[in-house]
């Protein structure tokens, strides 16, 4: 989009200048909504954007994302900017009711006021949709919103973003995007028993039956082996040589990061890979030794791998660029949490399709012809071959995931 120069603006009548400025604020707000990934939670039907209705599964029950169109009866039509700002930065809705942190206000509280104001301006231009959503479907006592008073006291600090004077402008921009609008920690930071962020920052966490992996610069279990270009490629296209976006991350790429500017994507990549946001002790650890080749599970798994997997991922785990990810020296395989790995082997996966790569590769399901022991063994083999090293996978872990998949 071309913008008017200062000289051209000076020649415009006052009303035209105001209209141009308002349009730019709205367009900027539209981009803020993309950075904040509003559509992933608030859009079920692309023909009715932001009308709500997406179920959000939490450890405490189900919430339904509300209608945030400007419909007066069922959306935000009766809200004003101060109402909206309070919801975004304090977790308090119009009339004083408390929001649940499935709406990531603990991250959005870091937003700059201009971003909140421009986002609000954009939301006023969205087509109003009458869609009455019963957002709170949690069981008692979690359905009582007053419990959030205690939760906020223990888990919410309401701080604002402050650039680090020792870091570059680009690193600070990346920090702002990751910590605030992108709310990456909402999925990638472990939670305490109350559902607040309570573990090592960005070290990985379970979400909706998937595992959001470690995104620290740890080379063994994080993204420390990824280049800036590979991380940008993943966020922009949905995949790189190590991984393809599936599960909740597929929604993020589809609705959000594939539409970010390259400047913002590189800012995020440089911030995450710099380790500026985490304690070095959380990611600068020595990797373990792999299980021995004569380990019973490793031996059994090697036969399954060469029979069922090597045709796509190649005998040496190198994969096929752009089609099948490499398994060799792949830190995503080394995590202590194996939920995503087991899920993909059992149920298969078709990663996100993006504008840049509209034809997404697919992983077939093996639940029908691999036993729990087979899946545990082949994953144990992969997790301890070609530069990988991780604990063995148990048949009981596979059985638990099989049961979860059957109940979905």
UniProtKB/TrEMBL annotation:
It comes from the Bacteria. It holds the Pfam family Cytochrom_C. InterPro entries: Cyt_c-like_dom (IPR009056), Cyt_c-like_dom_sf (IPR036909), Cyt_C_IC (IPR008168), Cytochrome_c-type_DH (IPR051459), Membr-bd_ADH_cyt_c (IPR014353). Gene3D superfamilies: Cytochrome c-like domain. It is found in: Cell membrane. Keywords: Cell membrane, Electron transport, Heme, Iron, Membrane, Metal-binding, Repeat, Signal, Transport. Residues 1-18 form the signal peptide. Residues 24-127, 169-276, 296-386 form the Cytochrome c domain. SUPFAM superfamilies: Cytochrome c. This is Cytochrome c. It comes from Halomonas dongshanensis.
């Amino acid at each position: 989009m071309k913008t008017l120069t200062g000289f051209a603006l000076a020649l415009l009548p006052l009303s035209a200048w105001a209209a141009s400025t308002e349009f730019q604020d709205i367009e900027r707000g539209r981009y803020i909504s993309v950075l904040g990934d509003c559509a992933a939670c608030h859009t079920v039907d692309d023909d009715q954007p932001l009308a709500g209705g997406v179920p959000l599964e939490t450890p405490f029950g189900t919430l339904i994302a509300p209608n945030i169109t400007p419909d007066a009866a069922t959306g935000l039509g009766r809200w004003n900017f101060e109402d909206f700002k309070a919801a975004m930065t304090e977790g308090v809705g119009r009339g004083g009711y408390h929001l649940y942190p499935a709406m990531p206000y603990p991250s959005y509280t870091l937003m700059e006021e201009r971003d909140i104001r421009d986002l609000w301006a954009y939301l006023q231009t969205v087509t109003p949709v009458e869609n009455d959503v019963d957002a709170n479907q949690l069981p008692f006592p979690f359905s009582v919103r007053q419990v959030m008073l205690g939760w906020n006291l223990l888990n919410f600090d309401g701080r604002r973003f402050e650039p680090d004077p020792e870091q570059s402008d680009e690193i600070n921009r990346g920090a702002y995007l990751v910590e605030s609008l992108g709310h990456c920690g909402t999925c990638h930071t472990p939670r305490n028993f109350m559902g607040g962020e309570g573990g090592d920052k960005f070290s990985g966490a379970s979400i909706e039956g998937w595992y959001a992996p470690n995104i620290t610069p740890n080379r063994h279990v994080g993204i420390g082996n990824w280049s800036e270009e590979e991380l940008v490629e993943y966020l922009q296209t949905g995949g790189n040589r190590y991984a393809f976006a599936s599960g909740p991350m597929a929604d993020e790429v589809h609705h959000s990061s594939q539409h970010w500017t390259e400047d913002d994507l590189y800012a995020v990549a440089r911030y995450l890979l710099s380790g500026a946001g985490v304690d070095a002790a959380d990611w600068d650890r020595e990797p373990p030794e792999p299980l021995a080749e004569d380990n019973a599970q490793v031996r059994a798994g090697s036969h399954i791998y060469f029979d069922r997997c090597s045709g796509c991922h190649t005998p040496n785990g190198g994969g096929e660029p752009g089609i099948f990810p490499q398994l060799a020296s792949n830190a995503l395989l080394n995590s202590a949490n194996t939920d995503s790995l087991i899920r993909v082997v059992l149920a298969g996966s078709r990663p996100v399709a993006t504008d840049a790569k509209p034809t997404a590769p697919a992983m077939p399901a093996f639940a029908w012809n691999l036993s729990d022991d087979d899946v545990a063994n082949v994953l144990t083999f992969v997790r301890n071959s070609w530069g990988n090293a991780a604990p063995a996978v148990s048949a009981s872990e596979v059985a638990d995931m099989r049961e979860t998949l059957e109940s979905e």
